[in-house]
């Protein structure tokens, strides 16, 4: 019996020593939060080494500055991805129906020019692609839609001429030897009213027809979400009131298009040529 008591006492003493042993909390936390390289590298590339260490390794979830920055970077990446496909349903709708009913040619041309200037300005300044990448994809998609509007209105000469004109514009805007930096900056400054003006013809066309015609619901909703998210990313990453105001106004006008989509959901009009 005494041997059993001795064994129990020894076991209890050993257990107490194990429990009472100091645990290196910081080292343990760092080991738990240390991600493998395939996961760590993309995250560091997105939010930066400082915020990665703060949020992931140190797990300081109360660091509001890094949280806002990370959310902004995530939204920026999402906007670029969304911008790469946002008008694909619109293109598919046009081709599938062989119709451009209800689509404003002026609207897509103005939008294509605004996106083209935005892309060229940021590309020439070497800005991170995540801050402007959607403008590149939107430029290509708007050019294609405007050419489709001409094509389905049987204006083949204008379709070919429009393609040549777009290529020449792209070349001039991206070439420093043709357009100087101050000219490029001036063109970028006018993209705000230009991009806003691109929405007015489509809003007016919808109002007159009491229908959104072949306008893609997916494109309208994603455009509204994208411009609204850009308001947040601009407020977080940039100190540019002019750019903030432009994104805010663009979000409002895209919101008007969203309202029109639901207002005229069940209404149809007879086919008519684009403006």
Automatic annotation (TrEMBL):
Keyword Repeat in annotation: yes
SMART domains: CTNS (SM00679)
Coiled-coil region(s): none
A Pfam family assignment: PQ-loop
Subcellular location: Membrane
Principal location listed in the UniProt entry: membrane
Transmembrane segments: 75-96, 103-123, 135-152, 164-190, 242-265
Signal peptide (residue range): 1-20
Annotated GO CC locations: membrane
Membrane topology of the entry: Multi-pass membrane protein
InterPro entries in the record: MannP-dilichol_defect-1 (IPR016817), PQ-loop_rpt (IPR006603)
Keywords per UniProt: Membrane, Repeat, Signal, Transmembrane, Transmembrane helix, Transport
Family indicated by similarity: Belongs to the MPDU1 (TC 2.A.43.3) family.
Descriptive protein name: Mannose-P-dolichol utilization defect 1 protein homolog
Originating organism: Lichtheimia corymbifera JMRC:FSU:9682
